[in-house]
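Lab notebook, bench 4. The sequencing result for the construct came back, and we need a structural model before the next group meeting so we can plan mutations. Quick request posted to the team channel:

Model the 3D structure of this chain.
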Amino acid sequence: MIALSLAEIADVVGGQTYDIPDPAVQVTGPVVRDSREVEPGSLFVAFVGERVDGHDYAADVVAAGAVAVLASRPVGVPAVVVDDVQAAIGALARHVVERLGAVTVALTGSVGKTSSKDLLAQVLQRKAPTVYTPGSFNNEIGLPLTALSATDETRFLILEMGARGIGHIRYLTGLTPPKIGLVLNVGTAHIGEFGGREQIAVAKGELVESLPADGAAILNADDPLVRAMASRTKARVLLFGESDDADVRAENVRLTENGQPAFTLHTPSGCSDVTLRLYGEHHVSNALAAAAVAHELGMSVDEIALALSEAGTLSRWRMEVTERPDGVTVVNDAYNANPESMRAALRALVAMGKGRRTWAVLGHMAELGDEGLAEHDAVGRLAVRLNVSKLVAVGGREASWLQLGAYNEGSWGEESVHVSDAQAAIDLLRSELRAGDVVLVKASRSVGLEKVATALLDDAAVSSEGQVSGR
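Done. Here's the predicted structure in token form:
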């Protein structure tokens, strides 16, 4: 964070200082909520959770170098005490962002937020110091903490914004008002909470409504619900996509033999070829979104194309591709899942697995409400249509819908199987995998299917060590 005295912080958040000998002492380190992340000069934020109360760690964090604690009650060590800790970090974040003067870029969408954000961060870092949301730290706590990690050198602040209902993005944009707003798509993620795609579009569109007249709304030309958001903003509109009228578009889209997308990037300033290091054609849209923002911020098409071609994956468990010594390829996409990302991952699996045996190890997609049965059935059916070699549906009722969809689509029989949990899937794969197979692992985060990918890779490591020791 930019250096601020405890007195300044107390004034910004409307707090009272307790047990602080010198209010002029400055916070020069990060603002953190995890006691394990404390560094000298930190400000520790004491949240009260369901199982853990941050106030209980106050003495420990000060001993570890924290300057003070932002708390809701006195804790016996230097503290700024407020009525509402969450509101306080929001106020502090807004103060820091306004003082910095960095360009704030906010992005939202039903699918691809984190991948697009990671690509954009790697592109903009080529131009100037950039701070961006780590992982999916995109809610009312994660977003201000990300903003507070900016320093005096920061020129671009990239903030991913998630929403669980109407009004959430409006609240987040109030904390960190963006100059550029990027909307990726409107899908079915969380449709059970919103009640329909139209309601999701209302929520996502709150981002473009927050933009100033001299800002820019970067909109997906290929998604009608996103394109329609142009009427909801006073900012300049820039379209990206594969549509002919998109300002930033892709032509000659294709997949390499490894399943990595390649295309020609067109911007208003020219064109250049791109070959991504990521897997799956769905990343073309994510790359175009990043390219549109970079173009708006003054980067040349050649700079953008080079940066995209060299960008990798920054966040865990999102199409992480690892090849074992025996030739088995493990694709760990187990961080989260919704119908759109499931379909994209299955297509990527098939593209990567040409001429090889492919496994789709899938679990349930959460928060689909009344659409749950139809959406899980459709994913199972798609696996058959794409000729995935074997579907392993993991979990309870929703997994049975996946398996049933596959069976009904193609009478697969032994080509689709329903197992109870991650360990059962691991046992099955250990007994049936053979050299050269490609395994996709994907489900909503609550299923914990990353355990399957981890076990498969750990097996390979143990096997490799055994071969080495036996020589």
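The longest strand covers residues 248-255.
Will bring this to the meeting.
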